[in-house]
Amino acid sequence: MANEKKAKGLSLFSGGLDSQLAIRVLERAGAYIEAITFVTPFFPADKAIAEAKKLGVKLHLIDFTDDEVALIENPPHGFGSAMNPCIDCHATMMKRAGELMNTLGFDFIATGEVINQRPMSQNKQALKTVEKSSGLEGRLVRPLSALLLDPSIPEQEGLIDRTKLCDLSGRRRERQAELAKELGITDYPSPGGGCKLTEDGFSRRLRDLMEHETLHERRLLDLLSVGRRFRLEKGSSLILGRDVNDNRLLASKSIDSDTVISPVSVPGPTGIIPRLISDEDMFDAAQIVCAWSKFDRFTGDAIVVKVTNNQNSREIKILPPYEREKFLPYQVL
Ligand code: SF4
């Protein structure tokens, strides 16, 4: 390249193949790239962290929880198929990325988007709209489809060698696989398993939390993925471990103000009530803990449970019958 200065780009990075290809293609085109991952309780960063390490690229982890929660509570363009405010989420990420670009003195933002991979949100017009509305006009590079788009400013200035960029389009993945091979990316995660906001079950839990408690407590958001969840008659929620790992996690995440219920006389799940509203809810929760415990249904013995709150513990006896069916209507599925 005639121009000796290297363009510096920040590339949005999920850890998925397209975001890896975007980085390698831009490096091949002469740019210096660092990665950005927006982190929320709805989009774990583990994959991005592991893949960035493998690629040897510096990763910026940006907490995006407050932005995402604000958009869930009030999405100007509404939701996708579940509680995913994709249009506004995407635009806000671009805006935040642009701010970081200016703060860190980078030249452009990049994404691994491929034209028409998602016909509604990734057609040529939609990509142009995002570029304009994020204030990144000319500074947003989509290296995987760049040859089908207008040249960005760094390309025009010769800081990125446009001839090394790609012309990928559509949903088929063969070209990405070929490109990965060409660029030496051999071990990459399979697509999917990304944003929980697109999942129906998770979205129902999230809506339940939003309607009855708050989305502004990080711990409650983290707990949305754990165990079974019940919304009890007086309004408290019960989170019940499904297995030994859940029970451990719930015990480790509980704080003094939680009401923690666990069976003493039989093996069974740990349940936590983050905000206990009434004694009726506490007794219902204790019955649920018993109903999901491993009891001998023929002996008719009472189950002893321990109830702890603010470091005070007491044991209470819950008498049979322990009926799961009675409480199924309270489960948030
Ligand atoms: S899938 Fe999730 S992270 Fe991605 S744009 Fe939609 S809401 Fe945002």
Describe what this molecule looks like in 3D.
The structure is a single chain. This protein has 333 residues and is α/β, with parallel strands linked by helices. The chain folds into two domains: 175 residues, HUPs (Rossmann fold, 3-Layer(aba) Sandwich); 103 residues, no CATH class. 35% of the residues lie in helices and 16% in strands. The chain has twelve helices and eleven strands. The strands form two sheets. A six-stranded antiparallel sheet has the order 6-7-9-8-10-11, sandwiched between helices. A five-stranded parallel sheet has the order 3-2-1-4-5, sandwiched between helices. It starts with 7 loop residues before the first strand and ends in a 6-residue tail after the last helix. The model has no long low-confidence stretch (mean pLDDT 93). Bound molecules: iron/sulfur cluster (SF4). Iron/sulfur cluster binds next to helix 4. Iron/sulfur cluster (SF4) binds next to helix 4.
Q: Topology of this protein?
A:
Elements: E1 8-12, H1 17-28, E2 32-39, H2 46-55, E3 59-63, H3 65-73, H4 86-104, E4 108-110, H5 124-133, E5 140-141, H6 153-156, H7 174-182, H8 200-212, H9 218-222, E6 228-231, E7 237-240, H10 244-253, E8 259-263, E9 271-273, H11 279-291, E10 303-309, E11 312-318, H12 324-327
Parallel strand pairs: 1-2, 1-4, 2-3, 4-5
Antiparallel strand pairs: 6-7, 7-9, 8-9, 8-10, 10-11
This protein binds iron/sulfur cluster.
The site of iron/sulfur cluster has 9 residues, from α4.
